[in-house]
Amino acid sequence: MGKWKEAVTTQLNDAARKNKKLREELRLLREEKANALSGLRVQLTEEFQERTAMQRDELEALKKQAAALREEKKTMAATHEAELQAARTKLREVIQLELETEYKRREGDWEKEKTQLQMLTAAKETERAQAEHECGVLQLRLNRLGTQYDELATLLQPECGFTAETCVLEAGDHAADGTSNAERQKTAMAAAHARQMESIKADLQSKEQRTQFLLGRAKQEHEAEKTQLLRELHLREEELKVAHTLLKQVQVENSRYMERVSHAQTERQALEQRYAAKVSALSQELAERIQAADEVQLANKRLQEQLRTSQQQVATLEEESTMREEAFHSLMFSEDSKRITMDLQRALQAARDEAEEWKMQYYASVTASQPPSAAVAATSQGGPSPQKSAEADGEHESAAATAPAAAVRTPEAWHDQLAAREANLDLQAAQLARKAALLAAAEAKLNKMRSSMASGDRSNAEDDDSDRGLADTSPLISTAASLLPSSLHGSLRLLEAQRRRLHLPGTCGLCACCFSGGGTTGVPRRLRRNAFLTIVAALMLLFMLASFRVVA
Questions:
Q1: C-alpha 508: how far from its chain's center?
Q2: Cα–Cα distance between 464 and 470 in angstroms, integer?
Q3: 452: pLDDT confidence band, cut at 50, 70 and 90?
Q4: For 158, which DSSP code?
């Protein structure tokens, strides 16, 4: 018996030394892990800063592109203005050509009208000459008739030299005295001839007067037409002068616009040269930025490879730590402890099976009693929010504690409990609906906050805090964190804090909590005496995790 105690003492001392050594190695590994994590955080911070710088560079590039687009817009506006000026110039040229064409057409019309007026004037002059010629002919005829009359009068005079009147008087006297018939006939013929001469003379005078009247009227019409034609010619000369003045003004404006167009073309060439220089500089800068971005991507790839290598090393160290902890617990356990542990594990498995069976029966009864729409609504709700996780933990603890007792109750109590649970589930479904709405609003607000850099920094800080909070947890809590949604990580952190406060192990070896050997390891001595309390706490923890899985 003494040798066995000495052997056990030696074994325990060896185990204590190994435990101390393993703890020291675990501390070193944790320090290395913390250093690696700090290095990774530094690398991630640098990468974030580099990405921020790249985004700022991209923003600057976009601003430059916007400025270039504004300049291009101004250039296009200037080009459009130049095109408008060119169009106006062309329009003025067309108007000038039309004016010149109209001026030439009017000059042609004026020449034609002038020619027609000249022809009309020549015709009037010809008519006047003809009238004057007719007047001359009539005057000659009149003179000839006068000569013939004088000759006839001379022939009709008697030898004594009396005039025709004296002859007529004498004839009258002779008639009175009873002259002969021959003399009377001669006297009558002379009188008839005299009357004929007087009538011819009167006719010639009337024709001369009418000819003079027609000639005067033709002269008046000619003078009036000549005056009107001179007035029209003067007016057309005035219009021609005005057209010449307008043509000179248009030519002056055309020369000014041509000067402006040449000046605008010179400015456009200068702007094109400046823009070409700017484009070449920007293209060179863009090539440099692209090269820098490629270098940054290569550095990022190297950092990601280093990060993956570090993560693999951390995972390897965690596996080694877990294996050493399991080896330590296996060394600390004796044969009796192992047997008790196996019994407890079998009991725990039976309790799990019973809990699963009770859960399946419960949910079968709930789904059978609820309508399909309510069941779908109850199953489609998300997990509770982090703010109400403590209340949910308390409710699931009470549910897990009362589950074994409810399994052995009467059917009436079972139905009453199911009705109460259904009402509670309806209330929880309404609460979950409200929480889902609040969660959706919070997620929308979070997405809106993530659009700015400050919210990105805060989210990175929160991620670092959450990673830091769950980095050193036990394998059980880590597994639960990987299986449960992020909204339940607060409850897992509380459980991890409680485990650390009670110095509970992080593995499934629950007997280490109850049957730890040395005084320096395991839970406090005040908790080692009550193994049943520890088992109940473990069962409650398992039921809580199962409830969380069901709610999720």
A1: 61
A2: 10
A3: low
A4: -
Please, what sign has the CA dihedral across residues 376, 377, 379, 381?
A: positive
Is pLDDT at 367 greater than 50 in this prediction? Answer: yes
- Listed in sequence order, the residues at least 6 apart from 255 whose beta carbon sits closer than 8 Å to its beta carbon are none
Please give the Cα distance from 455 to 493 (Å, whole number). Answer: 24
- Angle of the 2-156 helix axis to the 164-176 helix axis, nearest 10: 50
DSSP assignment of 476-525? HHHHHHHHS-GGGHHHHHHHHHHHHHHT--SSS-THHHHS--SSSSSS-H
Q: What is the pLDDT of residue 349?
A: 79
Beta carbons within 10 angstroms of residue 436's beta carbon: 16
Instruction: Give Cβ neighbours of residue 75 (< 8 Å, ≥ 6 apart).
Output: 271, 275
Of residues 169 and 340, the one with the higher pLDDT is 340
Which DSSP letter does residue 441 get? H
Cα 514 from chain centre: 71
Residue that is written with structure tokens 């009175």 in the block: 176
Per-residue tokens: 2: 């003494």
Domain boundaries, the chain: 334-552
Report the C-alpha gap between 77 and 72 in whole angstroms.
8
Instruction: Give 515's pLDDT tier (boundaries 50, 70, 90).
Output: very low
Q: Please count the residues of the chain.
A: 552
Nearest alpha-carbon partner for 495 in 439, 531, 548: 548
CB 369 within 8 A of CB 418: yes
Residue showing tokens 């002068």: 241
**Per-residue model confidence as pLDDT tens digits over 398-438:** 444 344 444 444 556 666 776 777 777 777 667 767 766 76
Tokens at residue 78, please?
A: 């200037």
User: CA angle, corner 424, sides to 420 and 430, nearest 5?
Assistant: 150
Instruction: Tell me: pLDDT of 543 over 70.
Output: no
- Residue 243 binned pLDDT confidence (cut-offs 50, 70, 90): confident
CA-based angle 317:323:329, to the nearest 5? 135
Whether the per-residue pLDDT at 103 is higher than 70: the answer is: yes
Most confident of 7-16, 74-83, 217-226: 74-83
- Rounded to whole angstroms, the Cα distance separating 84 from 455 reads 51
Neighbours of 34 (CB within 10 A): 13
Q: Other CB atoms closer than 10 Å to residue 26's CB: what's the count?
A: 17
| Alpha-carbon gap, residue 450 to 255, rounded angstroms | 63
Within its chain, how far is the Cα of 479 from the centroid? 49
58-76: average pLDDT: 87
Measured distance CA(332)–CA(336) in Å, rounded: 11
pTM tops 0.85: no
Which carries the bigger pLDDT value, residue 396 or residue 368? 368
What is the C-alpha separation between 304 and 314, in angstroms, rounded?
Answer: 15
